[in-house]
Amino acid sequence: MNTSETQDTIRPAEATHFGALAADWWDPRGSSAMLHRLNPVRLGFIRDEIDMGFGADPASLRPLAGRRALDVGCGAGLLCEPLARLGAQVTGVDAAPENIAVAAEHAGAMGLAIDYRCGELAGLDLTGFDLVCAMEVIEHVEHKGAFVAALASAMTPEGLMVLSTPNRTTRSRLLLIEAAERLGHVPRGTHHWDDFITPDELSELLAAAGLAMSRPRGIAWAPVKGLHLSDDLALNYIVTATRA
To answer: Are 138 and 204 in contact (CB under 8 A)?
Structure first.
């Protein structure tokens, strides 16, 4: 990975966009309402994967005890805090200092010791993580291959990576951008459809970083179920990756 690429993974305009939403991040009815609805689905998937991948006791309340977890693009800590409650020693990284400030304040109020950092992941010299997460992040970064390589370098040889991202399909353009943003479910300018990546493209990025991707699971929406794991990959999907 060359240095110029690692310096360019953060897009300043994206950091500014999400930093402007920082104060509202923990409001389940605010601008991040969709993330609040999405979080339980992502956490359910992560819990199943750590139980299987780490041989954790499914009945344990702290299956990540003694392990280190990294959440990249952590925002104000919506995923970091549950991971800490599952027993992990958690580090959260974000491009927006406003998000890091809100995250640290909220974690302190909850009595959670989470190490929050702001900046380029590749420049923070973070290594040795058992679990590395980047949820709804890769579609917002520059030089996606460099970003994936930086995630991989932070992970232990036996570690587990979890990524989720919108798929680049006609349905995702219509529903995640045209409908969701115009109806106010997602702040305007949050998504750029051309930056969405397909499962095949993500698999190639992970392979280039020496990682093997699992079979993707879709995150779909239905009137009765709401957001849920599905075989339908058209809108959003979630995967794990391990050393090849």
So the answer is: no
Question: In this model, does residue 208 exceed pLDDT 50?
Answer: yes
Q: Average pLDDT in the 175-189 region? A: 71
Residues sharing a CB contact under 8 Å with residue 172, sequence separation 6 or more, in sequence order: 166, 193, 196, 234, 235, 236
* Nearest partner of 84 among 123, 117, 119, 131, judged by Cα: 131
The pair of structure tokens assigned to 228 is 């849920």
Q: What is the pLDDT of residues 21-73, one digit of tens each?
A: 899 999 998 888 889 999 999 999 999 999 999 999 999 999 999 999 999 99
The residue with tokens 């397909």 is: 198
For 70-129, the pLDDT digits (tens) are 999 999 999 999 999 999 999 999 999 999 999 999 999 999 999 999 999 999 999 999
Indicate the CATH number for domain 3-243. 3.40.50.150
DSSP string, 161-212: EEEEEE--SHHHIIIIIIIHHHTTSS-TTS--GGG---HHHHHHHHHHTTEE
Contact 84, 90 (CB under 8 A): yes
All structural domains of the chain with their residue ranges: 3-243
Give whole-number Cα distances, 109 to 76, 96, 106, in Å: 13, 20, 5
Collapsed DSSP state (helix, strand, coil) of residue 241: strand
